[in-house]
Each structure stands twice: as structure tokens, then as C-alpha cells.
Amino acid sequence: MHGASKEYLPQIREALARVPEGGWREFAAFAGPELETLVAWNNKIVLVGDSSHALSGAFGSGAGFAMEDGWILAQSLAHFDNDLSKGLPLFDQIRLSYYARMYAHLTSEAARRAQNLQDIGNPSFDERVANKIISDGGADMSWIYQNDMEATWKQSSKPTTSSVTRTPEWRKDDPPDIPYSRLRKSQQVEKSTA
């Protein structure tokens, strides 16, 4: 642990102590995997802004993403009178699906670029550089650059019969309104054997 961190609150020191040796990467860009959840420690910690996604700055909207995260987090907590056990799962559902869409776009771009290089065969330095230039190719990116957070909130916070707004301890026969792939492995096993 870094020397200055000895002055941090005990809870922060405990969290930092859980980072495995060599696992801390200061200012690392795109250094981690797509997260399965943005909340941890039984809905006591939430990741927002750059900590919630290991993106490379491809969209030039990092500060905007952080403000959107903060706004949705504030709305989620206010919606449940600051009950973390309910507000954080709702925040997680709304923002994680947004970040999943970004990762899907980046994966698609990476595949397109790899195919371009393969088609060229033996690309020159200039061709490799040109291949890295972001080209949306007419793709509709308004979901990033013209994202209406208020509309997103209104759509996402509507209660449904199986809404995430319940306490997030779901029974195996009553799954939440989140993608199946995000359920804990134990829940996946229970569902597959049910």
C-alpha cells in the first residue's frame, strides 16, 4: 500500500489492502475487463465515472459519463429515500446496460479494424495509423452524444412486476429485470437446474 494511504480512513485502507500485489495500475487506460456490476460489498460501494469502465477515451466523453453516473445515482438514491440496498441496484441496472453498449461498440470497432489490417495483408506504418482513426461509418452515436438522462431515468425507473426496485435478494423463481448473464453464478446454476 502506498505510504500516503496510511493517513486514509480505516475503511479506505481496508479496501485498498484488498487490491492484489501488482493489481493497482495508476492512470491505466483500458486496463481492465468489462465489469459485471458497478456495486459491491452488499450495496455499500458503487463505482462511478472512469472507475466504472476501463475505456480508452474513445468517445471523448469521460467527464460527461461521470456526470451522467452522478445524476442517475442521485436520482436512484432519492427514489428510495437513500436506501442503498434498493437505490444502488437500480443505478447499476441503468448505467451498466449503457456501458455494455459502449463495450459492444468498441468490440465491433476492434473487429472491423482487425479485419481491415488482415485485408491489407502487410500494412505500412501509415496504414496502421489510419486504421486506428475512429470512423463511425455512419453509425448512429446519438445514444452517447445526445443522451437524454432525464428520459433514460423516466423510462428506467418505472416500476414493473419484476422490477429491480425490490430488495435485490431475488428468489430463483423471480429473476430481476437485468440481463441473465449478470446474475451471480450460483443463481445461474439454480436457474439452470430449476
From TrEMBL:
Molecular-function GO term, any one: oxidoreductase activity
Listed GO biological process terms: secondary metabolite biosynthetic process
Keywords, sorted A to Z: FAD, Flavoprotein, Oxidoreductase
Start and end residues of each stretch annotated as Disordered: 152-194
Domain of life the protein comes from: Eukaryota
InterPro entries: FAD/NAD-bd_sf, FAD_monoxygenase
Composition bias, Polar residues: 153-166
Protein name: FAD-binding domain-containing protein
